[in-house]
Design a protein that fits this description.
- The complex is a heterotrimer of chains A (153), B (277) and C (116).
- Chain A has 153 residues and is of the alpha+beta class.
- Chain A contains 4 helices and 6 strands; from the N terminus they run βαββαβββαα.
- Chain A has a single domain, classed as Beta-Lactamase.
- In chain A, strand 5 and strand 6 form a beta hairpin.
- The longest helix of chain A is centred in the middle third of the chain and has 25 residues.
- Chain B is of the alpha+beta class and 277 residues long.
- Chain B folds into 2 domains: 134 residues, Serine Threonine Protein Phosphatase 5, Tetratricopeptide repeat; 123 residues, Beta-Lactamase (2-Layer Sandwich), CATH 3.30.450.
- Chain C contains 3 helices and 5 strands.
- Chain C is globular, with a radius of gyration of 13 Å.
- In chain C, 51% of the residues are buried.
- Classes of the chains: A alpha+beta (153), B alpha+beta (277), C alpha+beta (116).
- At the B-C interface, helix 10 and strand 3 of B face helix 2, strand 3 and strand 4 of C.
- Strand 3 of chain B pairs antiparallel with strand 3 of chain C, so a sheet runs across the interface.
């Protein structure tokens, strides 16, 4: 597990322990990867972050078109792995969580402990640092700079 | 050159900082191209000296080479970087096993199992180490050191002593520690196979799950878990904070009586555990 | 089907000591239908009870036994009861320490028959 900011570590560690998630990615909607667990290749994070953000944007747009409230979370159940994707508001702006889990846990547990992690993050977020403006052109540069920080590149 | 190695080599050539060196080195290792695997992983380690996965992989390559001493060092580095690294624990556990240091081998395999409880390879390795421990007469397989080395028969006597005099002492009563190791008792499947160790390995997880459910649902400490199955009834209790007791009886035995049996067995287990301290 | 679930669940929650009952997807641990007293965290009950049942099922299978047909977790201040109600469906009840276990078990098994 690697996190850019120390206050994210404990809630994420608790989530990982309780949910038994295989891969987890926490990022801002601007593309900055805040923390990751389980990824060994920066290129995978890059793809996952971009795709996760795009999927959430698409479903939010779909909700807008349908005139319903935005979807809180999305999940896909594969044969051996499931994917859970959720956005949540923080004092630092909108964050996105992407979780890949295996058959040794369940969507219910992932969702339960993800919600608890969000509560813990909200309780632990430092006062300083306001939300950043989300610009599409920033996404890639934010992503690359956070990957450099996470992988020491 | 196989396609996956070709693709990964091209990726690494295009971006030498890519972490693709890990799967590439592993693919080369699996194809027994150990020198090439070593070069790739060493180049990766020069860029990512703090990547536990890379040290673990280098340890495996060295182990395949038969260079156990250096492999031990690499897995040691991996564990310093990530104390829960299951691969490194498995590797060091293997080396200790080869060196005949069975206690240490078991310790590291247990650490690996704590991270991946369903890893059949680790479970099989642990069973092998325990078997060797029993044959060796070492007392480290049981957390009940009482003296010098024992022969296998004596070890079996000890496990039976836990429930001595109780019905089912050898089949249907099972005392397990928090790591899923059998402390005493035995269990046969309906087909007559010895399933004690297999079931014991899973009971630690059941106990952890029961503890978590009771805690998060604010129900206090869990006391018992009772299960009915077509082949029999099972009753799980926790005689002490660190142990789990399973009582299994045929379906005809009412659950209430099972609870009474469990209480008697729990008292016996507590007395036995106290006698060891 | 949902109405049938709801009817069965409400019947269970009328039993003394039962604070809630729910139909849950076994694999996912997600609520399908529920009848809960206020303050009972349905999502948590569903996820945790299904997970416990799954782990217990693995242990029972390792023993060479057929899958569990009933599970009861007794804790200091409460109890969880779980009965498989068909493929990938669990009937779960949560109650206090003084639940009438025998009656609850029979009611749950009957409810499962109706649901099946």
């Amino acid at each position: 597990m690697r996190a850019l900011e120390p206050w994210v570590e404990q809630p994420l560690m608790t989530f990982l322990t309780e949910s038994e998630a295989r891969l987890t990615l926490l990022m801002t909607s601007a593309g900055q990867v805040v923390a990751q667990h389980g990824f060994t290749r920066a290129v995978d994070i890059m793809s996952a972050a971009a795709l996760g953000a795009a999927i959430l944007s698409s479903t939010e747009e779909m909700a807008r078109v349908l005139g319903v409230r935005p979807f809180r979370a999305l999940s896909h159940q594969g044969e051996s792995h499931g994917i859970f994707l959720s956005a949540f508001e923080t004092p630092r702006g909108r964050w996105i969580g992407l979780v890949v889990y295996g058959q040794d846990t369940s969507l219910g547990l992932v969702r339960l402990f993800f919600d608890r992690m969000v509560d813990e993050l909200m309780a632990g977020v430092p006062a300083e640092g306001g939300p950043k403006q989300v610009l599409a052109q920033n996404f890639e540069s934010e992503l690359h700079s956070s990957l450099r920080a996470l992988f020491g590149r | 050159m196989s396609e996956d190695i070709r693709v990964m080599t091209a990726q690494l050539a295009a971006d030498p900082t890519s972490l693709v060196f890990l799967p590439l080195a592993e693919a080369l290792r699996q194809r027994k191209r150990l020198d090439a695997a070593r070069k790739v992983v060493l180049a990766g380690l020069s860029r990512y000296p703090e990547l536990a996965d890379a040290h673990n992989l280098y340890g495996r390559i060295l182990g395949d080479h038969g260079d156990f001493e250096q492999a031990f060092d690499e897995w040691g580095i991996a564990l310093r970087l990530d104390p829960d690294h299951a691969g490194a624990h498995k590797g060091i556990g293997f080396l200790y096993f080869v060196a005949g240091k069975l206690d240490q081998a078991l310790e590291h395999l247990q650490a690996a199992q704590a991270t991946f409880p369903d890893d059949e390879g680790v479970a099989a390795a642990m069973a092998r180490v325990r078997e060797a421990l029993e044959l060796d007469g070492s007392d480290a397989a049981e957390p009940s050191p009482t003296g010098p080395a024992r022969v296998e028969e004596e070890a079996e006597d000890i496990t039976e002593q836990v429930f001595a005099g109780l019905e089912g002492a050898e089949n249907g009563l099972l005392l397990v520690d928090q790591h899923g190791q059998r402390l005493g008792g035995g269990l046969l499947s309906p087909a007559g196979q010895d399933v004690a160790d297999r079931v014991a390995a899973h009971l630690a997880g059941v106990s952890r799950e029961a503890t978590r459910a009771a805690r998060l649902l604010e129900m206090g400490d869990w006391e018992t878990v009772t299960v009915e199955s077509g082949d029999g009834n099972l009753h799980l209790a926790s005689p002490t904070a660190d142990t789990v007791l399973l009582v299994v009886r045929q379906s005809a035995i009412p659950l209430g009586r099972l609870a009474a049996l469990s209480e008697r067995a729990a008292n016996a287990a507590r007395a036995w555990l106290e006698s060891l301290t | 089907m949902t109405a049938l679930y709801q009817q069965s669940l409400e019947g269970l929650t009328r039993l003394r000591g039962i604070a809630g009952a729910m139909v849950v997807s076994a694999d996912d641990g997600l609520v399908v239908a529920e009848s809960l007293m206020e303050g009972i965290p349905g999502d948590a009950v569903a996820a945790l009870a299904a997970s416990l049942m799954r782990r217990m099922g693995t242990a029972v299978s390792a023993a060479g036994f057929t899958p569990p047909s009933f599970m009861h977790l007794q804790a200091a201040r409460g109890a969880l009861l779980v009965v498989p109600a068909g493929p990938d469906i669990l009937l779960i009840a949560i109650g206090d320490r003084h639940i009438n276990l025998g009656l609850a078990r029979i009611e749950m098994l009957q409810a499962v028959e109706q649901l099946g």
